[in-house]
Specification:
This protein has a two-stranded antiparallel sheet. The protein is mainly alpha-helical. The protein starts with 15 loop residues before the first strand and ends with a helix. The protein has 19 helices and four strands. The protein is 51% helix and 2% strand. The N terminus is likely disordered. It has three domains: 202 residues, no CATH class; 120 residues, no CATH class; 76 residues, no CATH class.
């Protein structure tokens, strides 16, 4: 037999209880520093059952400063506090230890939600309903820091629960559908957990009724995801792999996911949307994501947000032309542009939307829709122009100026509406001869509106190329 001791690490020690049956000594608790969550979870259950007699031990346990720091670290993973950017992609690998940790976090959330509810005037102080069912298992990344005993205590701010709940949702699979619904009901769509609304920050105030409507729309989407998982090929073929507890049910960018329905219907050539209207999809997604970003919940990269905004223009009824929806879309595009200017980020056009749709495929659809039904919508123009900046791959400029040059006549955005500055589209000067020929053909064929952004770009690069060619010619003549 091959010695595998150097290739496969031993399983971690999760601790235990050491008993000595032949000695009159008490059992010894062994707690490991690497995986204390199993003991902590058992202790939490014990203290909760004892709280009817004395709440102080449970309160000290939950308000422990190290415990608060642990929750704050989980919250930072989706709130952008670590790097100012969106949260990293979720690790979907199965891990029994991570599932045990998330069971613990769900019970902690249930306890803290109950405390917050009881602190409200006239609150019903009955027993809390756990956020998970007995036997629910979920997975989650193990934090780097360990929970150790601390003498100081720090009450957990209720506002910390919102990002922690979003972190939890990124790891819950189909098996834990009831836990997802409870998080929706208890935290995600509860106005009290959004500081921007309590402090009147942002664009208007979101009402509790609006949150309830959004919750209904996302629950409909959630049920469709469960049905899709139940009808998956793996389930029908009775494989031995238990997929329902391995794969998160919600996409990492799930607050934006309703817009993907518009993309799917466009690809299918269908004009009928099930369960939702086009207006519902656009308003729910863009308003809810705006609320999250106002409260520092960052679940999507700037590229994914650009792609979802493009999808908002793909609806069968062109609702982006309606006044209130156009205003909403324009505001969300402005938010993305402002963030990119502040952070100096660039788009990454190699990513896929929900791990399915490439940017190239989406951009082709957007160009077709823009040419047929944009009606000179300036913010839509800015989205079309985004990949054409000189810092991005030349394939996007070749695609538009060769195969879709007709769309450039409908570009109506101003310099201020571009992603980046006008200089980003002019420098460095173009050196690809083929693309320069496309610029010349577009100008000579009167395909571009005089003074428009595309016309200025083409004119600038052609003039720069000709000036450099004249310099080379003059230099060669001087050498002779």
């Amino acid at each position: 037999m091959e010695d595998r001791s150097e290739k496969i690490a031993p399983l971690p020690n999760v601790g235990g209880v050491l008993t000595r049956p032949n000695q009159p000594t008490a059992p010894t608790l062994i707690l490991t520093k690497s995986y204390p969550v199993f003991m902590l979870h058992s202790m939490l259950g014990l203290l909760r059952s004892h709280a009817e007699c004395d709440e102080l031990p449970l309160r000290r346990f939950v308000d422990n400063k190290c415990h608060h720091n642990y929750l704050a670290k989980l919250a930072a993973m989706v709130s952008g506090q670590q790097s100012g950017k969106s949260a990293p992609l979720v690790n979907k690998s199965t891990n029994w230890f991570l599932k045990g940790e998330l069971n613990y976090v769900l019970d902690v959330l249930a306890l803290l939600v109950k405390d917050g509810r009881n602190q409200r005037p006239g609150a019903n102080k009955g027993p809390s309903v756990p956020l998970r069912h007995e036997g629910d298992d979920v997975e989650m990344e193990k934090p780097d820091e360990q929970l150790t005993s601390c003498e100081t205590t720090q009450p957990t701010d209720g506002r910390l629960l919102l990002p922690v709940a979003f972190k939890v949702l990124l790891h819950l699979s189909e098996e834990f559908y009831p836990a997802i619904v409870r998080l929706f009901d208890e935290i995600i769509f509860v106005r009290d957990f959004y500081p921007s609304q309590l402090e009147s920050v942002g664009n208007g105030t979101v009402t509790a009724e609006e949150l309830q409507r959004w919750k209904f729309n996302y629950k409909v989407k959630l049920k469709s995801l469960v049905k899709r998982e139940e009808n998956s090929s793996d389930r029908r073929h009775n494989n031995y792999t238990v997929t329902e507890w391995r794969t998160p049910l919600l996409a990492p960018t799930w607050p934006y996911s309703l817009l993907y329905l518009l993309l799917e219907k466009t690809e299918q050539g269908s004009t009928k949307l099930q369960h939702y209207s086009e207006e519902q999809i656009i308003k729910t997604t863009l308003q809810f994501s705006e609320l999250l970003e106002q409260n520092s919940i960052l679940l999507a990269s700037v590229t994914h947000r650009l792609m979802y905004l493009m999808a908002a223009f793909l609806g069968p009824d062109a609702k982006f032309l309606d006044g209130d929806i156009s205003t909403l879309i324009t505001r969300r595009i402005d938010d993305l542009r402002t963030e990119m200017l502040r952070s100096s980020e660039r788009f990454d056009f190699d990513v896929r939307l929900e791990e399915r749709k490439s940017f190239h495929g989406l951009y082709q659809l957007v160009l077709d829709i823009f040419q047929s039904s944009s009606y000179g919508h300036a913010p839509f123009s800015a989205l079309v122009m985004a990949p054409l900046a000189q810092c991005y791959d030349i394939q996007w400029r070749n695609l538009v100026w060769s195969e879709h040059v007709a769309v450039l006549r409908f570009i109506t955005c101003s310099e201020q509406q571009l992603f980046g500055t006008m200089e980003d589209y002019l420098q460095p000067v173009e050196t690809d001869v083929t693309l320069l020929k496309f610029y010349s053909q577009a100008l000579n064929s009167n395909l571009l509106r005089p003074g428009s952004i595309p016309a200025r770009i083409a004119t600038h690069h052609l003039q720069a190329y000709r000036a450099k060619a004249n310099e080379r010619k003059a230099s060669n003549d001087a050498d002779k």
